[in-house]
Design goal:
The complex is a heterodimer of chains A (398) and B (495). In chain A, helix 2 crosses helix 13 and helix 10 packs parallel to helix 11. Chain A has 398 residues and is an alpha/beta fold. Helices cover 40% and strands 11% of the residues of chain A. In chain A, the strands form 4 sheets. A 5-stranded parallel beta sheet of chain A has the order 4-9-10-3-11, sandwiched between helices. A two-stranded antiparallel ribbon of chain A has the order 1-2. Chain A has 15 helices and 11 strands. Chain B has 3 domains: 148 residues, no CATH class; 93 residues, no CATH class; 114 residues, Ribosomal Protein S5, domain 2 (2-Layer Sandwich), CATH 3.30.230. A 6-stranded mixed beta sheet of chain B has the order 5-6-7-10-8-9. Chain B has a two-stranded parallel sheet with strand order 1-2. The chains are: A alpha/beta (398), B alpha+beta (495). Chains A and B meet through helix 14 of A and strand 9, helix 15, helix 16 and helix 18 of B. Chain A: Its main location: mitochondrion. Chain A: Pfam families: DAP3. Chain A: Belongs to the mitochondrion-specific ribosomal protein mS29 family. Chain A: One of its GO terms (cellular component) is small ribosomal subunit.
C-alpha cells in the first residue's frame, strides 16, 4: 500500500530533517563524518577543496575551485580592514583564512602580471549579482599585490563614507567641502598598518601647514602626515587628501607600484544620505574624502593599477536587482570611469560548488547528517543556486 | 382548506407549494390592496406594498413543527412528477421511456423554447385563469405564460400573489406551487415543466424574476426531482384503528432498529449453527471473506438513520456494526451476503482521478508540459522541460533574484525534491498577483501539475497525498461590520 508522506514544513531547520520528509520512508539518522575512521576520503576531499599553493602569483587554471591558506599574520598586515564581516567571522571560527581561487580573480591576476607600468593605470571593474564574490576576489588581488610588494591603497567600502556620518565639519582647506574626521582617521590607521614599510621611504614633496603651530616640511616621510592625521582628528581628512595626492604623484615616478582598490565605487557618484544643518542634501563632491578619491580613480597617472568593485549591497537609492556597472554607476560615474575593463563575477560553477562544500565538510561546519549525501548537496545547490553568499548563509544554519 | 404541507429544511425546489395558512378574509383584503398597486406593474412598487403594517411578524409556532405529508399526497406528487417528466421529454424531443434524471436536470438548466411546445400540443387556448383564491385545487396557483397582452396582467398578478404569500409568512420556508402554462387538460392534473427560453420580453423578465438563474446558491435554483428525494421520509401511522400497534417491537421505541438487530442476530445464529454442522461433518473449510469487504465501507450513522427513519444513538450504531462484522466473519451463504451488502457502500480507492496531459514536444524535440496554479490571488503558469539543469526562470528573472527569501525557494524545491528530480528539469514560468508567499505557492502548484506528465501514476498518487496537487482553498476572510477584522472584535470596555 502507499508509503507514508508528511506535509512539507517551511522552516530551514526542518528541511533536511531525516525521516520527516523523505517519501522513501523514515530513515535512521546516520552518523556524522568521522575523520578518525577513514583517512582516505578526507585526503581525496582535501585534494578537491584545498591547494598547497599559497602564493597567489602561482595560481593557475588548475587551482580553480580550491582554497588556499593565508596565514594569520599576513592577514593582519595585508587586510586590517578589507575583509567582509562574515568572512572575518568564518576566519575566527575556523582559525584559518582560506580563500577560493576563482576564474575572475585569475583573469585579473593575469592582466596585472602583464601590466605595462609606463602606460596610464588601467581600470578594472568587478561587477556581478549580490553575493557572487566580488569583494573576496578583490581581496585575492590585494593579497597578490601585497606579496608582490605593491603599495596597497584599499578603501574597504566607499559606501561607508557617504552615509551614517555623525560629525561633518566644514573643511579647513576648502570652505565648500565637508570633512569626515572619524572615517578619515580610521582609514588612516588601517592604511598605516597595511603599508608600514613604505611610509618611511616615501618623502613628501610639499610643505603642508596644519595650523598655527604644526606643519610638515618638505622632504619629511609620509609617516608624519599619517601620524598627524591620526592624532589631530580634525585634520584627518586633509591628511588623507595629502596622502592620496603624494602617492599619485610619486607612483608615476616609478618608486613603487600603487594599487588603488575601492570596494563599492558606485558610492562616489551616487547620492548621499547626509544633510547639512539646514536639511539640504549634500552631493558627493562636497565631501572632501570623495573628492580626493575621485581624483585618485582617474587614470591620469602611471605605475600601478586601479581595481574597483561596484556593489548594490551598500548602495543608496539603487534598486535591488541592479548589478551592471551602467545601472549602478549612473551616467556621470560611467563617463568618468570609461574606459575600463569589466570583469563579471558569477555564481559558482559545479566544480567550485563542490569544492566549497568539501571545505565546509572538512572543517566540520556542516553538522547535518544529510549534508554529505548527494541529495543534501542537490538541495543546497537548488536552494542557493550556487550563489556563494547564499550558500554560506544557508550552511551557517546547518 | 386543504393544507398541503410546508417543507422544512428542504431546498426551495422548482415545484413550490403555497400553504394556506392565512385566513381568507385577510388574504382578500391584502389581495385588493395589492391589486390596486398592480397598475404600475413595477416590481419595487409591489414590494413596497408588501411591507404594509398589516403584515405581522409574529413567530408562527405551528409552522415550525415538522409537517407530515399524507401518503396520498406523496403518491399524487409522484404521479405529477412522472407526467411532467414525460411532457418535458416530449418537449425536448427525447424518448419519454428512457428519460433519466440527468436529462431532466440538463433540460432544466438549458431551457428550451416554449413556443415549440405550444405549437405542438393540442391545447385549449389559454383563456381562463383559475381563481388564485380558489383553494380547491389543492392550493395550487396556476400561472401561465402567454404571448398575449391580458395574460401579462395575469402573470404579474401571479407574481404578486406568490410574493405576497412568501413575504407574509416570515416563519419557515414556504413552498409555492406554480403551474406554468395553461395546464388544464380535462384531467385537471397539471403538467410540471419549467420554461425558460424564447418568449417575449416581459415574460422572459417574469421568468428570470421568478426563477432567477443568477442565484449563486445552487440550492435556491429551481429543481425538478423525484418526490422521494425532495420530501423527507416519514413514517406512516404505526397503529391501527383500535390503538394496537402493528409491529411487535413498537414499545421499544426504536422498532426498526431492534427488528433489524433481531434479524441480524438470527442470521448470525443460523450461520454459526451451519458452521457447527459443517465442522461436525468435517467439511469445514476456511474461506476468506476479505474480497467483498475491500473497496466498501459500512454505512455511517446518518445513512443508517435515514434508512430506518429513526433516530439512533452512537452506542446503538456501534452495536449494530459489531454485529454485522461478526456476521461477515462467519462463512455465509448468498442470502446473508446480500443482507450484509445492503449496509455497505463502495469507496473508490483512487478518489481523485484527474487528467494527465500528454507530453508536448517543441521544435527542438524537447519534451515539455504546462501547468497552472493558483493560491490566494496569485496565478501562475509553468512550463517544465524534460531535460535541463535545474534552472528556474520566473517572469524572465532567475528564481534566486525573484525570491530572495529562502522559504519561497523551498516551496519551489518541494515538488522536485519529492520526486527526486532536483537537477533534471528546466522551468519557465509566469506569475502575477498575490504576494511573495502566494506566488511561490501558485508556482509550486503549477509545477507539480506540469510534472504529472513526466511521472508514473503511482507517483502522481503520492504527490496528491502529499498535497502537492491540491489548490489551497484558504482565502482572505472578509472583515465583518461591528468587528475590527475578520475575527478580532473591538476592545471590550467595561464602561
Amino acid at each position: 500500500s502507499l508509503p507514508p508522506v508528511l506535509r512539507f514544513p517551511c522552516a530551514v531547520h526542518q528541511l533536511l530533517d531525516p525521516g520527516r520528509f523523505s517519501h522513501l520512508g523514515t530513515q535512521a539518522p546516520q552518523c556524522p563524518v568521522a575523520h578518525l575512521d577513514n583517512q582516505v576520503p578526507t585526503e581525496r576531499t582535501r585534494a578537491i577543496s584545498r591547494t598547497l599553493e599559497n602564493d597567489p602569483a602561482k595560481h593557475g587554471e588548475q587551482h580553480v575551485g580550491q582554497h588556499y591558506n593565508i596565514s594569520i599574520q599576513e592577514l593582519k598586515t595585508v587586510f586590517p580592514h578589507g575583509l567582509p564581516p562574515r568572512f572575518v567571522m568564518q576566519v575566527k571560527t575556523f582559525n584559518e583564512a582560506c580563500l577560493m581561487v576563482r576564474k575572475p580573480a585569475l583573469e585579473l591576476l593575469h592582466y596585472l602580471k602583464n601590466t605595462n607600468f609606463a602606460h596610464p593605470a588601467v581600470r578594472y571593474v568587478l561587477y556581478g549579482e549580490k553575493g557572487t564574490g566580488k569583494t573576496l576576489s578583490l581581496c585575492h588581488i590585494i593579497h597578490f599585490c601585497a606579496k608582490q610588494d605593491w603599495l596597497i591603497l584599499h578603501i574597504p567600502d566607499a559606501h561607508l563614507w557617504v552615509k551614517n556620518c555623525r560629525d561633518l565639519l566644514q573643511s579647513t582647506y576648502n570652505k565648500q567641502r565637508f570633512d569626515q574626521p572619524l572615517e578619515a582617521s580610521i582609514w588612516l590607521k588601517n592604511f598605516k598598518t597595511a603599508n608600514e614599510r613604505f611610509l618611511s621611504q616615501i618623502k613628501v614633496q610639499d610643505k603642508y601647514v596644519w595650523n598655527k603651530r604644526e606643519s610638515t616640511e618638505k622632504g619629511s616621510p609620509l609617516a608624519e602626515v599619517v601620524e598627524q592625521g591620526i592624532m589631530r582628528v580634525r585634520n584627518a581628512t586633509d591628511a588623507v587628501g595629502i596622502v592620496l595626492k603624494e602617492l599619485k604623484r610619486q607612483s608615476s615616478l616609478g618608486v613603487f607600484r600603487l594599487l588603488v582598490a575601492v570596494d563599492g565605487v558606485n558610492a562616489l557618484w551616487g547620492r548621499t544620505t547626509l544633510k547639512r544643518e539646514d536639511k539640504s542634501p549634500i552631493t558627493p563632491e562636497e565631501l572632501a574624502l570623495i573628492y580626493n578619491l575621485r581624483k585618485m580613480v582617474k587614470n591620469d597617472w602611471q605605475g600601478g593599477a586601479i581595481v574597483l568593485t561596484v556593489s548594490q549591497t551598500g548602495s543608496l537609492f539603487k534598486p535591488r536587482k541592479a548589478y551592471l556597472p551602467q545601472e549602478l554607476l549612473g551616467k556621470e560615474g560611467f563617463d568618468t570611469l570609461d574606459p575600463f575593463i569589466p570583469i563579471l563575477v558569477s555564481n559558482y560553477n559545479p566544480k567550485e560548488f563542490e569544492g566549497c562544500i568539501q571545505y565546509y565538510l572538512e572543517n566540520n561546519w556542516l553538522q547535518h547528517e544529510k549534508a554529505h549525501t548527494e541529495e543534501g548537496k542537490k538541495e543546497l545547490l537548488f536552494l542557493s543556486n550556487r550563489n556563494p553568499g547564499l550558500l554560506e548563509r544557508l550552511c551557517a544554519y546547518l | 382548506m386543504a393544507a398541503p404541507s410546508v417543507s422544512c429544511g428542504a431546498a426551495v425546489p422548482y415545484r413550490l407549494f403555497l400553504a394556506g395558512r392565512v385566513s381568507f378574509a385577510r388574504e382578500q383584503g391584502l389581495w385588493k390592496a395589492a391589486a390596486s398597486g398592480l397598475q404600475t406593474g413595477t416590481r419595487c412598487q409591489i414590494l413596497r406594498l408588501k411591507h404594509s403594517p398589516a403584515v405581522t411578524t409574529t413567530k408562527n409556532v405551528a409552522a415550525l413543527r415538522r409537517e407530515s405529508y399524507t401518503v396520498d399526497f406523496i403518491k399524487k406528487q409522484i404521479e405529477e412528477f412522472n407526467i411532467g417528466k414525460r411532457h418535458l421529454a416530449n418537449m425536448m424531443g427525447e424518448d419519454p421511456e428512457t428519460f433519466t434524471q440527468e436529462d431532466v436536470d440538463a433540460s432544466l438548466s438549458m431551457g428550451f423554447s416554449r413556443q415549440e411546445y405550444w405549437n405542438g400540443l393540442p391545447c385549449p387556448p389559454p383563456g381562463d385563469l383559475p381563481d388564485p383564491r380558489d383553494r380547491t385545487q389543492g392550493s395550487c396557483i396556476a400561472g401561465r405564460f402567454f404571448t398575449s397582452g391580458p395574460a401579462g396582467e395575469a402573470l404579474t398578478e401571479l407574481i404578486h400573489v406568490v410574493f405576497w404569500r412568501l413575504l407574509e409568512k416570515t416563519a419557515g420556508p414556504y413552498v409555492v406551487h406554480l403551474r406554468l402554462g395553461a395546464v388544464l387538460p380535462p384531467g385537471g392534473e397539471g403538467h410540471l415543466e419549467t420554461c425558460r427560453g424564447d418568449m417575449c420580453q416581459e415574460h422572459r423578465r417574469a421568468i428570470t424574476y421568478l426563477f432567477p438563474s443568477g442565484l449563486f446558491e445552487k440550492r435556491a435554483r429551481p429543481i425538478m426531482k423525484h418526490p422521494e428525494e425532495i420530501f423527507p421520509k416519514q413514517r406512516a401511522v404505526q397503529w391501527g384503528e383500535d390503538g394496537r400497534p402493528f409491529h411487535f417491537l413498537f414499545y421499544t421505541g426504536k422498532q426498526s432498529y431492534y427488528s433489524l438487530m433481531h434479524e441480524a442476530y438470527g442470521k448470525v445464529l443460523h450461520a454459526e449453527e451451519r458452521q457447527d454442522q459443517l465442522r461436525a461433518k468435517g467439511l469445514f473449510s476456511e474461506k476468506s471473506k476479505s474480497k467483498d469487504l475491500i473497496g466498501s465501507r459500512w454505512l455511517i450513522k446518518e445513512e443508517l438513520e435515514e434508512m430506518l427513519v429513526e433516530k439512533l444513538s452512537d452506542q446503538d450504531y456501534a452495536q449494530f456494526i459489531r454485529l454485522l462484522e461478526r456476521l461477515s466473519a462467519l462463512p455465509c451463504d448468498a442470502a446473508e451476503e446480500e443482507f450484509v451488502g445492503r449496509f455497505r457502500r463502495t469507496v473508490t480507492v483512487q478518489s481523485k482521478k484527474h487528467l494527465i496531459e500528454p507530453l508536448q514536444y517543441d521544435e527542438q524535440g524537447m519534451a515539455f508540459s504546462t501547468g497552472q496554479g493558483k493560491r490566494k490571488t496569485a496565478n501562475a503558469e509553468a512550463v517544465v522541460y524534460g531535460h535541463g539543469s535545474g534552472k528556474i526562470e520566473i517572469n524572465g528573472v532567475d528564481y534566486l533574484l525573484y525570491f530572495p527569501v529562502t522559504q519561497d525557494r523551498e516551496q519551489l524545491m518541494f515538488p522536485f525534491h519529492f520526486l527526486d528530480r532536483l537537477g533534471k528539469h528546466d522551468v519557465t514560468c509566469t506569475v502575477s498577483g498575490g504576494g511573495r508567499s502566494s506566488q511561490a505557492g501558485a508556482i509550486r502548484l503549477a509545477m507539480s501539475r506540469a510534472l504529472c506528465s513526466f511521472i508514473t501514476e503511482d507517483e502522481v498518487e503520492w504527490m496528491r497525498q502529499a498535497g502537492l496537487l491540491t489548490t489551497d482553498p484558504r482565502v482572505r476572510e472578509r472583515k465583518k461590520p461591528g468587528q475590527e477584522g475578520a475575527r478580532r472584535k473591538f476592545t471590550w470596555k467595561k464602561r
